[in-house]
Amino acid sequence: MALLPPDPIYTIRNVDNQPVHSLEFSFLPGGLERLLAGSKNGYVNAYSLQTNRVQQKILVGQAPILNIRHTDSHLITQEKGGKIKIFQLANSGYQEQACFETDHVGFCRFAINTKLETLYVPAGESKIAIYNYSSEKMGYLTPNESCKLGDPMCLKYVEFSENPYLLTGYENGWIYLWDLKTSQCISKLEIKQCPMSIDYHLEQQRGICGNASDVIQIFGIGKQDLNLSLRGEISIKNHGVNKVQSHSDGKVFASAGWDGRIRIFSWWTLRALVVLTEHKAAVQDLTYSEQNVSQWNANIMAAGGLDGAITLWNLYNNKQ
Fold it and tell me: Which residue ranges contain the repeat WD (predicted)?
């Protein structure tokens, strides 16, 4: 591990110093590169990655914005309390296209299939509701076990051999793998405590699960039979992980902690490479840019938290 943590390449103070609950990079035609920040006061603030200043303020509602996803043509938001809004991109602005309420009041973020324009949204009685971008309900994923799984806590859309699946972590400590073509659970795994966040890297054939404990769990999905299995555990200094996220290159993954620490791990050794200590309160979300940000000519990681700070990091070349 490094003796001293590196500095961020830039730190943005969110508008009115509002706590940040969600982040999403957006790359639009014409070289428009932005970072969207979902705030406690119901706004999504769009920051230009050329100037690092707020370029647009989008009023979504009155509740914190728990999740943001941006596609080539849509902005989709999720508010605390369960409301989902879908905005159509028009002339660099956003026009509300659909809005629907869900019966989920927790912190589970929706998952998305951008190819089919489909949302997977936590619902009551351990169900996952399926919606299209027009807010039409397409069906449910419904567990058939008699045991109580509790609420869905985290979701991750994955594809194997171009077939769609959904990883779901439940309140009572289970991970299910749903086949979205048949709406059936094809594998399940019992883990420690209530999962708070889940991610999976296809080439590594391994996933990560963070929870309220001081342990991050590593799991696998069999290449042939798609069976879930526990592969290992990583101990961290302090309890609580809000988000786990693998880098697309499969070299590293990161965790966002209740203690304000961002921990970067090697996929190969499962050991911490560095602990980033810039944030002074819990880190709520972190995400990576899917392409290079032109100002730094690099793939950038962004993190945001309750301290109202948004930090930008170049993980592979901190010296600018």
Answer: 276-320
Backbone angles phi, psi at 39, to 5 degrees: -110, 165
Q: How far apart are CA 273 and CA 317, in angstroms?
A: 14
Q: What is the pLDDT of residues 77-91, one digit of tens each?
A: 999 999 999 999 987
d(CA 1, CA 198): 24
pLDDT tens per residue across span 258-273: 999 999 999 999 999 9
Contact 112, 80 (CB under 8 A): no
pLDDT of residue 299: 95
Distance, in Å, from the CA atom of 52 to the CA atom of 245, rounded to the nearest integer, reads: 23
pLDDT of 318 strictly over 50: no
Q: Which residues, other chains included, contact 119 with Cβ-Cβ below 8 Å and sequence gap of 6+?
A: 76, 84, 110, 111, 112, 130, 131, 132, 133
Structure tokens at 78: 């999720």
Phi, psi values for residue 172, rounded to 5°? -90, 15
Q: How many CB atoms lie within 10 A of CB 230?
A: 15
Mean pLDDT taken over the chain: 94
- Residue partners of 234: CB distance under 8 A and separation at least 6: 215, 216, 217, 218, 265, 270, 271, 272
8 backbone dihedrals φ, ψ, rounded to 5°: -65, 155
